[in-house]
Amino acid sequence: MAIAREVRAARRCAFCAERRAALSPTAVSGAHDAATDLRPAIVDAVHRVVTDPGRLSRRFADEVIAAVSDARLVELVGVVCTVMLIDGFARTIGADAPPLPEPVAGDPSRLRPTEAVDEGFLGERT
To answer: Which residues constitute the domain of residue 35?
Structure first.
């Protein structure tokens, strides 16, 4: 739910707007208008995926993976995309974004599918 809250905060983040207007996303320094107490690396990754997906790179992915793990990056992107689709549909039909559900208690399974492998960035083997 924290990632979902960050998706919504990213749309109003002044730092993201400044970064998006810059020639390179790394040319601007500052802090995100975070809505949660998630680690800065996670907040940055969520905000980048939401506000500047066209300039994501293998370097970006490698930095996020180093900070949180490849599995958490996959989960992060999945949550970001899901929230963006739901909120985008709501905007399209003129409705408010639905309220976020309450988190469900319990620990994640942390089971990694055996077929989950790194196939490289954009299909290129690394």
So the answer is: 2-96
